[in-house]
Each structure stands twice: as C-alpha cells, then as structure tokens.
Design a protein that fits this description.
By secondary structure, the protein is mostly helical. The chain contains 7 helices and no strands.
Length: about 200
C-alpha cells in the first residue's frame, strides 16, 4: 500500500468549513476514517480533468454494478469546483469531504475509491500532460499489443500469398521426365484437305 514520505499524524486546516462540517471531520479523523494520502494537496489546475472524469465514471460503474450519473456528476463537480458556492471564495479540493459525500452511495467502498482517486490525482499533477503515469503506461502497452497483432496478421497474409504463388508456379512447370506431356489435339482435316492430299 502507498506510504507517503511525511509524518503519520495528520493535521488538516478546517477553518473554511462550517461548525457541523468541522465537528464531523474531527470525529472521523479521530476514528481514523481517512487515508494518510489525503494530507498531500492536489492542484486540480494541473490535472487533465477530462481523463480523470472518464476514469471516475468507469470506476464507479464497476463498483456499483451499474451506471449512476448522480454520483458520477457529484464526484466530477467536487473535483472541478474552484469557488465556494456560498462565499464565492477560492475552494481547495478536499479528499475528506469527497469521501464523506460519496459514503452514502459507496458505503465501505468510499475510502478505497477516494484513496485510489487521490493517488492518481497526485500522480497526474506531477505529470507533463496532467495524466497519471499509470494511464500512459497502460495506453503504451495497448498500442504495442495492437501493433504486434496487426503485424502478425500482415505476416500471415504474406505467407499465404507466397504459398499461392508457389502453387501457380508449380502448375506452370513441365511434368518431370517419364510422365506423358499433354499435347494439343489437332483438328481433323477437312474433306477438301483430304482430297488434295490424295491427288
């Protein structure tokens, strides 16, 4: 499992949340409900949100067993929301709130889902194109497999073509010595030609 290089005791800045949120987050933090990886901040501006949104949709569909647009939109909105809806102030992306929000849909799977998502976001923000290196490696492997498959098919067609050409050449070859050679049948002479030969 992932072990980030920082102190194990987490301390979050929760001054931006209401009293109810503060109490809930503190209680869950005391209970150890949050992953340690949440302490590392994510700058969503450095992440390719379209690519991550696709992953969120596929992952949630896999976990739920069906496509749920409500929870998918909830997660993607939380990822892309830059300002607080009430205060209009800049809003930080908070994995703890994300986990709390999706718990009603995912129950015990909420923490594993948000933990995996957060690790991918951390990787993506350090990547050149804002895409997790895991995705890039998987795409590279997929392309290599496609190239090998297409190369094998081309090789098979070339081999079959070579066999066919050989067959045609053999058909055009003369039979070996000792075998009767086929000769064209000459047309029978006409009656006039026969008479002329008699004379």
């Amino acid at each position: 499992s992932f072990r980030p290089p920082y102190h194990r005791t987490m301390s979050f800045d929760i001054k931006d949340y209401g009293d109810a949120d503060k109490k809930l987050l503190r209680r869950l933090e005391r209970e150890g409900a949050f992953s340690e990886v949440y302490a590392r901040p994510v700058d969503i501006r450095r992440v390719n949100v379209d690519v991550m949104g696709k992953w969120v949709s596929e992952k949630l569909t896999e976990m739920l067993g069906f496509e749920d647009e409500v929870v998918v939109n909830l997660v993607t909105n939380l990822l892309t929301q830059r300002t607080d809806a009430l205060s209009g102030q800049p809003k930080k992306l908070d994995a703890r709130l994300l986990q709390v929000q999706v718990t009603g849909f995912l129950a015990k799977q909420a923490r594993p889902f948000v933990t995996e998502l957060w690790e991918l976001l951390l990787d993506a923000q350090d990547s050149k194109h804002g895409i997790p290196t895991k995705f890039l490696e998987e795409k590279k492997k997929q392309l290599q497999q496609q190239q090998q498959h297409s190369g094998g098919r081309r090789g098979g067609r070339v081999a079959r073509g070579a066999v066919g050409t050989g067959d045609a050449d053999r058909r055009q070859q003369k039979p070996p010595p000792g075998f009767p050679q086929k000769t064209k049948k000459r047309d029978r002479p006409s009656d006039d030609e026969s008479d002329e030969s008699d004379e």
